[in-house]
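Appendix B: complex inputs.
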Amino acid sequence: RKEVEQDPGPFNVPEGATVAFNCTYSNSASQSFFWYRQDCRKEPKLLMSVYSSGNEDGRFTAQLNRASQYISLLIRDSKLSDSATYLCVVNTGGSYIPTFGRGTSLIVHP
Amino acid sequence: NAGVMQNPRHLVRRRGQEARLRCSPMKGHSHVYWYRQLPEEGLKFMVYLQKENIIDESGMPKERFSAEFPKEGPSILRIQQVVRGDSAAYFCASSVPGQPYEQYFGPGTRLTVT
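Resulting structure:
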């Protein structure tokens, strides 16, 4: 089982839709979780951290489920500009090296 | 406050040549990470450096690849005797001490080996 797994998609949704992605991780000792966004042929950019209590930033909500070892990202009222690949990042305590998932591709169409 | 800078943005090398990729971290950041990304694949960690010190190079191929982050100047990822399989996007990221997981990425160097 890979350390961090994501459904590659693509998720094809109309503008205004709500879409959610999950990311599963294998190491129960993982402590830090993040979502990054990567546009085509661009660098990844930090989107948001994922806290145990959940985290909301505008239309974006991130949640952590430790029991089932996954994190989720919910995007409400999708915009065309949300089209990108969303990378899940997990870190295991004691390590300085984050593990990136391969990403989930989102395509928002008019 | 300039972000992470990488140069060159595009680099073409023939097989057997050397490739030198440069990364200047954000102001105030003293930690640098290098990643490689192949088409349709995720980011693969290569090496983690602080000034004058390699902290973790567990992701670096054993041969032909080296990295440094001198006291003055940018971090450099060097690939000697490049092969076609080295063609990829190489990203550098920087962070501040104590927050290694909140990383800020440069625009990347796209290496093409012909």
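Residues 45 and 81 of chain A are 14 Å apart (CA to CA).
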